Automatic annotation (TrEMBL):
This is Transmembrane 9 superfamily member. InterPro entries: EMP70 (IPR004240). PANTHER family: TRANSMEMBRANE 9 SUPERFAMILY MEMBER (PTHR10766:SF107), TRANSMEMBRANE 9 SUPERFAMILY PROTEIN (PTHR10766). Its main location: membrane. It comes from Urochloa decumbens. Keywords: Endosome, Membrane, Signal, Transmembrane, Transmembrane helix. It holds the Pfam family EMP70. The lineage of its organism: Eukaryota, Viridiplantae, Streptophyta, Embryophyta, Tracheophyta. Coiled coil: none annotated. Belongs to the nonaspanin (TM9SF) (TC 9.A.2) family.
Length: 540
């Protein structure tokens, strides 16, 4: 600490034919070298267009670069064999102690020339305390049976960055990011006001008109959503499966909400690597109690009796599908000997959390929810289902469901771009305040668009709204996956088959989870809406 080290030789190696080939493959695949100093990741500072603004940090150093010599069509590969480290520190005015606040690096490719030998030490003519390396004027090419010498510099620089705020530069948010978020927020708020005005005026008129009908003949001549009062709460087809998906969505909603609140309060530090994923997994496990409770309550409302089977499906269906995909992808990573492969002990711990803690909690929640008194319906359901008239083309289930997913997706796709860019380009993402704001926007849009389309469906005397309400907002997951595919082909340069499979495997899991989350939000919004409007009219 505080001792500059110019031109330090690490080692010298002679690459074999296979080692040279491996290095070239790593450069083609854009592998990066990552280091940590005092829990700060090594970064390359990149100047912004506004020179007065703090630099943008890129995490890690590429193994090397490739290029073409003038007049040659063949590609040459050059290795970054010299790293120039800059450690920034902040001195305490009272104690005089220094604390590290930044860990920056500049990589160079230098073809070193050896001077005299002194035992094991190597004297270099291309690098010395008086002649520091400032550029890659004569780069080190990767060739078999040729020697490569690795060197580094360490320099220290005092900084006015406080130790408490040393992560701020790492987590700096681009200015245009806020512009897009505010733009999305204003658009959604405008749509919310318009939808609310239309729905309130229309519903107020409908309810007033229905309550003023005096004779039986007038009631028979009337058409609209009131005529469905004896069928609107009729249990749907595959009611147990709907209960399972709704319970899983409640589990997701609770996990995301609590995780974001914890992150906003500053209880998740970026220095705690993996803390965010660990928190989400633990919350997912313990939210199984709420998943089971909501599943049991809904199943009881549908007059079901086999609550134990539904509880088992809730505990196994979604987590089981995700685990199978994750395990298959992990096997591919094991075969490729990737450092991203999850160890067997960690896999065992995940299975224990799933079957040993989450499953019993779901059972307990289902028992408590099923044994509570059933929710009273505002209207009675006839034994004989009402015939459904022919529907207009725009109320076709496929059309209305696909249209319903556009608005929720549009509320998140800007943030989705930043998240994908962060994950797949080795950048930092810790903007949980923005994510929470986007999460609120998502909940609002899912609820609003589903209620509007549900209202149109009921006005056309179609009472089969249960599954459609779930699929309407849940269809945004389809646009989510399509956008992830578009991002893959336009923003990433992934060519290896295993990497492609891993990308689409993870994106499918995330899209599936997004479907469950948004579908549940839309379902509960419609459930609240239908019970509200049918409890507001007089039924003879």
């Amino acid at each position: 600490m505080m001792e500059p080290k110019p031109c330090q030789v690490v080692c010298r190696i002679v690459l074999s034919q296979q080692e040279a080939k491996d290095f070239k493959e790593k450069i083609d695949d854009e592998y990066r070298v990552n280091m940590i100093l005092d829990n700060l990741p090594m970064v390359i500072p990149i100047k912004r267009v506004d020179k007065e603004a703090p630099p943008f940090y890129q995490q890690g150093v590429h193994v090397g670069v490739k290029g073409q010599h003038a007049g040659s069509k063949d590609w040459s590969y050059f290795i970054h064999n010299h790293l120039s480290f800059l450690v920034k520190y902040n001195k305490d005015a009272n104690t005089g102690l220094a604390r590290i606040v930044a860990f920056e690096v500049k990589p160079f490719s230098v073809k070193h020339e050896r001077g005299d030998w002194s035992g094991d030490a190597i004297c270099l003519m291309t690098c010395s305390p008086r002649q520091p390396i400032r550029n890659s004027g004569w780069p080190q090419q990767i060739e078999a049976n040729k020697e490569i010498i690795f060197t580094y510099d360490v320099d220290f620089e005092e900084s006015d960055i406080k130790w408490e705020s040393r992560w701020n530069t790492y987590l700096d948010t681009p200015d245009d990011h806020w512009f897009y978020i505010v733009n999305s927020l204003l658009t959604v708020l405008f749509l919310s006001v318009v939808v609310a005005m239309i729905m309130l005026r229309t519903l107020y008129r409908d309810i007033s008109m229905y309550n003023q009908l005096e004779s039986q003949e007038e009631a028979q001549e009337e058409s609209g959503w009131k005529l469905l009062h004896a069928d609107v709460l009729r249990p749907p087809v595959n009611a147990d499966l709907l209960c399972v998906y709704v319970g899983t969505g409640v589990q997701f909603f609770g996990m995301l909400l609590v995780t974001l609140l914890i992150a906003i309060l500053g209880l998740l530090s970026p220095s705690n690597h993996g803390g965010f994923i660990t928190t989400m997994l633990l919350l997912w496990v313990f939210m199984g109690l709420f998943a089971g409770y909501s599943t049991g309550r809904l199943y009881k409302m549908f007059s079901g009796s086999e609550w134990k089977k539904v509880a088992i499906k809730t505990a196994l269906m979604f987590p089981g599908a995700v685990f199978i995909i994750f395990f298959a992808l992990n096997i591919l990573l094991w075969v490729e000997k990737s450092s991203r492969a999850v160890p067997f002990t960690t896999m065992f711990a995940l299975v224990f959390l799933w079957l040993g803690i989450s499953l019993p909690l779901i059972f307990i929640g289902s028992f408590l929810g099923f044994n509570k008194p059933a929710i009273d319906d505002p209207v009675r359901t006839n034994k004989t289902p009402r015939s459904i008239p022919e529907q207009p083309w725009y109320m076709n289930p496929a059309i209305s469901i696909l249209l319903g997913g556009i608005l929720p997706f549009s509320a998140v796709f800007v943030e989705l771009f930043y998240v994908l860019t962060t994950i797949w380009t080795h950048q930092f993402y810790y903007m949980f305040g923005i994510v929470f704001l986007v999460f609120v926007i998502l909940v609002m849009t899912c609820a609003e668009i589903t209620i509007v389309l549900c209202y149109f469906q009921l006005c056309n005397e179609d009472y089969r709204w249960w599954w459609r309400s779930y699929l309407t907002s849940g269809s945004s997951a389809l646009y989510f996956f399509v956008y992830a595919t578009f991002y893959f082909f336009t923003r990433l340069q992934i060519t290896k088959a295993v990497s492609c499979i891993v990308y689409f495997g993870y994106m499918f899991v995330v899209s599936y989870a997004f479907f469950v989350l948004t579908g549940t939000i839309g379902f509960y919004a419609c459930l609240w809406f239908t019970r509200l409007i049918y409890s507001s009219v007089k039924i003879d």
